[in-house]
Design a protein that fits this description.
It is a single chain. Helix content is about 45%, strand content about 10%. It is α/β, with parallel strands linked by helices and about 450 residues long. The chain has an eight-stranded parallel beta barrel with strand order 5-6-7-8-10-12-13-14, surrounded by four helices. β13, α10 and β14 form a beta-alpha-beta unit.
């Protein structure tokens, strides 16, 4: 476990000139390589901050700049942009160094981040074995664990019109083979989860698409994935990330207009309708989609991207309150999918992550105060008090008919509108946010 200095304490030096990021409440505004709010070992609401937040860094974004610019324009001293195994190993080692300096114990990746996937399956298998052994050794040395691995079923041209739902059976077989290998690698690296991202599953023109057939193909591949995981005797939690949760607010692809998993509602219905809700949970961004996934007990993880406005501390606090109300962090934790600027060096890369880690930790502190003082929980209980006894309790816990509802209404006609005190409690919430600077 990472050790943290007391405020004002001496820092531990780490190679490459970057100091280990530590908790220091007295850090100045220009000390951007300190945590003001995140103290991994500190206990809040019966768990450590590290347990509540369960941060993971995305290796995908660590290696990628943005969709608009190629990686060759990046300023990465550890990355020569080649497809050599030595370059992949250098990038992984630099990434693990960063995780260690930040005190983050988990990481995530797509298979295409770890090696160049060629058209030769035997070559890929050999390279996979080599890179997995290297990662295993690094993981033991750095104490950084793979949270989830995902097959890249969207960047290769063969997947332009989908992987699960492609009209070509050869593409379906290729996707299935890729998933099988990723499951085996996940098992070898003791990952906790396995992610599926149906990025290109959908249709453009309905007159040339057999939607019913494509949905059956989609279901088939998800089912055989779950079945193979069970045959491996793996405890992996299967995760699925609906399309719009990838963080892109604007369309950057024109091939697919109608996605089968556009939002949380379509995803949850799909899983429930085909009996897959027992095997898969959903990754979601903060906000409404996350609350709905939580309400259905289907939240598998939270994804934070650069486009998320860190000034929205209210939304982040509600995110953490939702997690606290469940009394445990989702198995997929909080994944930081943060793309670095093209000119970012190692120090600036670390600062980018510190910024997000600390703001979310601040939200956790506020959420723990809110839950601990129970002002909002008591207000919510009072709002629904009519459902705790009498007729209201029967509505919730037993069968009632429309006739019974009518009979009750006749005897208990109420025409007053109850004041929800929305403005009052909105201001109370804001004062909790304002008070965090004094924690």
């Amino acid at each position: 476990m990472s050790t943290y200095a007391q405020p004002g304490g001496k820092r531990q030096k780490v190679k490459e000139g970057i100091e280990k990021v530590e908790f220091n409440t007295a850090a100045s505004a220009t000390d951007t390589l300190s945590y003001r709010y995140y103290n991994a070992a500190e206990r809040l609401h019966s768990k450590t901050m590290e347990d509540w937040l369960k941060y993971s860094l995305s290796f995908t974004e660590f290696r990628t700049c943005s969709a608009e610019y190629p990686r060759t324009s990046n300023n990465r001293p550890w990355d020569d942009n080649s497809h050599s195994m030595d370059n992949y190993k250098r990038c992984i080692k630099a990434f693990f160094d960063l995780c260690t300096k930040l005190g983050v114990k988990y990481w995530t990746a797509y298979d295409s981040d770890l090696l160049h996937l060629s058209d030769s399956w035997e070559e890929n298998k050999t390279n996979f074995d080599e890179i997995v052994e290297y990662i295993h050794e690094l993981g033991q040395r750095y104490h950084v664990k793979l949270l989830w691995l995902a097959p890249d079923l969207h960047t290769h041209p063969r997947y332009t019109t989908g992987a699960f739902t492609n009209n070509d059976a050869n593409v379906f077989a290729h996707a299935a083979t890729q998933i099988k290998k990723c499951l085996e690698v996940s098992q070898r690296l003791n990952a906790e989860c396995f992610l599926i991202w149906p990025h290109r599953e959908g249709y453009d023109a309905i007159f040339q698409s057999d939607v019913a057939r494509e949905l059956k193909l989609f279901v088939k591949l998800l089912k055989i994935t779950a079945e193979y995981k069970d045959r491996l005797n793996s405890k992996l939690q299967l995760l699925i990330m609906p399309y719009r949760f990838n963080g892109m607010q604007k369309w950057r692809d024109t091939e697919i207009l109608n996605h089968y998993m556009w939002d949380i509602t379509s995803c949850l219905f799909f899983l429930k309708n085909y009996g897959l809700d027992r095997q898969y949970k959903v990754c979601s961004p903060p906000g409404h989609h996350m609350y709905m996934a939580n309400a259905y007990n289907m939240l598998g993880g939270v994804t934070i991207i650069n486009e998320y406005d860190l000034s929205q501390t209210k939304s982040l606090t509600l995110m953490m309150k939702s997690i606290i109300d469940q009394n445990t962090a989702p198995l997929g934790g909080i994944n930081l999918k943060l793309r670095l600027r093209r000119d970012a060096d190692a120090r600036d890369a670390a600062v980018c992550y510190v910024k997000y880690i600390d703001v979310i930790a601040k939200a956790l502190r506020v959420a723990c105060n809110i839950v601990g003082e129970q002002i909002f929980s008591k207000h919510v209980q009072q709002r629904y008090i009519s459902y705790y006894s009498g007729f209201g309790a029967r509505v919730v816990s037993a069968d009632v008919t429309l006739e019974e509802c009518e009979e009750y209404y006749k005897k208990n006609q109420v025409h007053e509108v109850t004041n929800s005190k929305c403005e009052h409690f909105d201001f109370v919430f804001q004062r909790y946010l304002d008070s965090c600077d004094h924690i």
